[in-house]
Design goal:
The protein contains 13 helices and 38 strands. It is an alpha+beta fold. The longest helix is centred in the C-terminal third of the chain and has 23 residues, at 613-635. It is globular, with a radius of gyration of 27 Å. It binds (2R,3S,4R,5S)-2-(hydroxymethyl)piperidine-3,4,5-triol (DGJ). (2R,3S,4R,5S)-2-(hydroxymethyl)piperidine-3,4,5-triol binds at residues 337, 367-368, 412, 479, 481, 527, 529-530, 546, 549. (2R,3S,4R,5S)-2-(hydroxymethyl)piperidine-3,4,5-triol (DGJ) is lined by residues 337, 367-368, 412, 479, 481, 527, 529-530, 546, 549.
Length: 740
């Protein structure tokens, strides 16, 4: 029984084999936090963990009592101003202008399973026994509002999910100024915070800092989760690393504005807050209305970062991603973007597809430029009908001819956007964000459609439905190429404007949902100028995402390493592209490029017509390799072994669930000379099993490979008889282990 309520002590204990989460109803009816960490054996009373204190100058909540101050109490879901002076988890503006509220425990229920969050992405269960849920209802007597704190603990994962629902039962309007998804008050500050930070073409780099007094956090106010920061943070003990130590992961299942913040107060309590960013958020609740926050997913690991990531991978791959493609082998694709950009016609596309088919590639993706009058990025977004001038004979014929080659056909869309030079904009100039008549920022010559409006979504849906019904489509790349700015929803009142950001992303989710329900066989890949919306929310609709517009194998090491902190390898879109690389100008070998791209959903993004026979032959072999190994790579357990953020080498490996096979990847950026010996300690193998090491003339037991390490010294280490003789920068090696 993973959730118990102890009546006498008024304590809730959520626990499974690995994790415990404890809180209690405190004297004023609020909920006080007692513990979050490694599993504790259950007992009737943990109230000794509740620290009361009487510090000078604290605001106390009860007359004549000096040991109950919310300022010093660790809380589940704190408000501001009646004792607690730290950043709150929510804020309500009452009808009289006051923001002081006091929600108190009313009731609770515990049940098997996990509820859906209507209209929003969330992790799920397939059978009720997989998880248990606790809903605690608190009520605010003065304003007749209800708040339901929803917790789910999974039976087999150290995972607790949280969200909150507000319900207005009064006749007055109540205004939510802030409604985060959860708060955790940790009793000390001995943590390092890890975040994933970056920019276009260098997404999700791993950044670490020690917690300091005051605020530290990351956020997006760009309308999308963004490449600047990801809706995720880690608190780890300073000594914890990839392999050991205590690590707490906090991830938000949401694709819009977010805030992920840690406040360390002056008494060393670290308050973690995660949820929708309060900026631009002002949600009026009328009588009978409710507001549901997105879901926050907390993972506990006592075995370092790898373990935390493995839990996220498994959960997000199997209980967040959905649909037919969730468990299926993903097709090896070729995308024409870097091969042609906008400059193509039906002949060029067909030739590329024909070449790809001959190499064993399975899916052809026609990227940007096939619709309206689009020949560059100044026109046609919004006009989702084929460009017949460019594609003579029409898109259907082209798609059918591609199918005739034995390739599936997929295409690119960017449904949330419009160019001024488009039929859509000419007809509906008020459908974009920004007040009609005012100057508005463009980005890549495009503007954002107001997806908070149903009529706009319906219009786009109808166009896309027509298109998808007309064409033999197996795959869609859904792009989104700009930051949202000038947020204003035309024709709507002041009250509505405070809902626009969130309604926009709910609108995106709704359109996705309609399309995946109507076209369940289509594989969706999300994209946002590369990885500007690579988040758990999107994974609920599209099981894979284009990771970055940067396809350079060397820089991809950092991008994919960082992305793997939370996101499953089966979601990481990664392609072999041209050398010299289009973003960096760097030249790398075909082997290096593929050896990096294998660790994701594999494909190609280059002009096959320009390659030598030798390179084409290599591609043929790579395709065979990936077909053989994609199931291992996508469904196995992934370990990061050496970080590209810490040195010249990167290494990672993936081990099959039954530990009978594994694939180790080792990359070296710059070629050293006469360097030290090189050994790589492996992870996750079966100690008792003897593994054959491909290409080496000896076998090893799992314990040797994990304790003593795989010897990788090569001629750079002065080892003349090494099998590895390659010289030069940007080297990669793949080593396959098979149980004998
Ligand atoms: C940005 C994407 O990330 C690219 O892969 C490509 O699809 C372009 N958009 C097309 O405009």
């Amino acid at each position: 029984m993973p959730i118990v309520y102890h009546e006498k002590s008024k304590e809730f204990h959520l626990y499974n084999k690995e994790v415990s989460y404890l809180f209690q109803i405190i004297d004023n009816g609020q909920l006080g936090q007692l513990y979050y960490g490694k599993r504790l054996r259950d007992r009737e009373d943990f109230s000794h963990l509740f620290e009361r204190c009487s510090r000078d100058m604290a605001p106390y909540n009860f007359e004549g009592n000096c040991d109950f101050s919310l300022e010093h109490i660790k809380q589940e879901y704190p408000t501001f101003g009646n004792g607690d002076m730290r950043y709150p988890a929510y804020e309500i503006e009452r009808v009289n202008g006051s923001r002081i509220v006091e929600f108190a425990y009313d009731s609770h229920k515990i049940y098997q399973g996990k509820p859906e969050l209507s209209g929003m992405p969330a992790t799920y269960v397939e059978k009720p026994e997989e998880a248990e849920t606790l809903e605690v209802t608190l009520k605010e007597p003065y304003i007749h509002m209800k708040m339901v704190l929803i917790y789910t603990i999974y039976e087999d994962y150290p995972v607790i999910t949280r969200s909150v629902r507000f319900e207005n039962e009064s006749e007055d309007d109540q205004v939510l100024l802030n409604a985060l998804s959860g708060c955790v008050d940790l009793p000390d500050r001995d943590y390092e915070m890890i975040e994933l930070a970056g920019a276009w073409a260098r997404e999700r780099n791993v950044v670490k800092r020690y917690l300091e007094y005051g605020l530290q956090g990351i956020y997006s106010m760009r309308g999308a989760s963004s490449y600047q920061f990801n809706p995720f943070l880690v608190l780890k003990r300073p000594k914890a690393d990839e392999f050991s130590g205590e690590v707490l992961g906090f991830s938000l299942v949401y694709s819009g504005n977010f805030l992920a913040q840690v406040e360390v107060d002056n008494y060393d309590v670290s308050r973690v807050l995660l949820g929708i960013h309060p900026h631009g958020f002002r949600w009026t609740l009328k009588q009978g209305e409710s507001f549901q926050t997105p879901e926050m997913v907390m993972v506990y690991s006592d075995k370092g970062l790898n373990k935390m990531s493995q839990v996220y991978h498994e959960l997000y791959r199997t209980r967040l991603a959905r649909g037919k493609w969730r468990d299926l082998e993903r097709p090896i694709l070729i995308n024409n973007w870097e091969a042609t950009y906008f400059d193509f016609n039906e002949q060029k596309i067909y030739e590329l597809a024909e070449k790809a088919a001959g190499l064993g590639i399975e899916l052809f993706v026609l990227d940007d430029g096939w619709f309206g009058k689009r020949n560059d990025d100044t026109s046609s977004l919004g006009d989702w009908y084929p460009n017949e001038e460019k594609l003579k004979g029409g898109l259907r014929l082209l798609a059918e001819r591609i199918n005739g080659l034995g390739l599936k056909f997929g295409m690119w869309i960017e449904p949330e956007m419009v160019n001024k030079d488009s039929d859509l904009y000419r007809k509906h100039p008020d459908w974009v964000f920004a007040e009609v008549g005012r100057n508005m920022c463009h980005s890549r010559n495009q503007y954002v459609l107001d997806f908070s409006k149903k009529e706009v979504r319906d219009y786009i849906y109808d166009m896309l439905e027509r298109l998808f019904l007309d064409l033999p489509i197996s795959y869609i790349k859904w792009d989104m190429n700009r930051t949202l700015s000038d947020i204003f929803s035309n024709g709507n009142d002041r009250e509505y404007q405070g809902k626009t950001y969130h309604k926009y992303i709910l609108g995106v989710y709704e359109l996705y949902e309609r399309l995946i329900q109507k076209f369940p066989d289509i594989l969706f890949e999300s994209c946002a100028s590369g990885g500007a919306r690579f988040d758990p929310g999107m994974l609920y609709y599209a099981p894979q995402a284009w990771t970055s517009d940067n396809t350079d194998a060397v820089q991809r090491l950092k991008i994919q390493y960082g992305t793997s902190m939370v996101y499953p390898i089966s979601s990481i879109g990664s392609h072999v592209s041209a050398s010299p690389n289009h973003q960096t100008g760097r030249e790398t070998s075909m082997e290096m490029r593929a050896d990096v791209a294998y660790f994701g959903t594999f494909g190609y993004e280059l002009d096959l017509m320009e390659l030598t026979e030798e390179d084409l032959e290599k591609i043929r072999e790579q395709v065979v390799f990936m077909k053989e190994h994609r199931s291992l790579i996508h469904h196995g357990t992934f370990y990061r072994l050496k970080s590209p953020f810490e040195g010249n080498e990167t290494a990672w490996m993936v081990v099959a669930k039954d530990r009978r096979e594994a694939l180790v990847a080792y990359y070296r950026i710059l070629q050293p000379t006469n360097t030290g010996f090189c050994r790589l300690k492996l992870e996750g193998l079966d100690e008792e099993v003897m593994y054959q090491i491909e290409d080496l003339d000896y076998d090893c037991y799992g314990d040797e490979l994990m304790q003593s390490g795989l010897i990788l010294s090569d001629t750079a280490s002065g080892v003349r008889n090494s099998k590895w003789k390659e010289k030069g920068d940007f080297q990669a090696r793949l080593i396959k282990l098979t149980a004998i």
